[in-house]
């Protein structure tokens, strides 16, 4: 976010929005124990799509091998391999 000019206090607000979150899984009417969310952006939130776009925007610049295909909220990587 800082590379896009987002400064405090807004930068700190985004950090606090993303940090310390927990997730649970419900299966067969049973709920798992809460586990920390350590990566990604919050799904189902108003800010989720914006944060995802910011997060993934520079991926083309850091990938050294393979070809990324980006569309909306999806990413596919294509690699070729020639065995020796």
What does this protein structure show overall?
The protein has 84 residues and is α+β, with helices and mostly antiparallel strands. It has one domain. Helices cover 26% and strands 21% of the residues. It contains three helices and six strands. It has helices at residues 10-18, 48-56, 59-62, and strands spanning 22-23, 26-27, 30-31, 35-36, 67-71, 74-78. The strands form three sheets. The chain has a two-stranded antiparallel sheet with strand order 1-4. It has a two-stranded antiparallel sheet with strand order 2-3. Strands 5-6 form a two-stranded antiparallel ribbon. A hairpin with a 2-residue loop joins strand 5 (67-71) and strand 6 (74-78). The longest helix has 9 residues, at 10-18. It is flat. The termini are far apart.
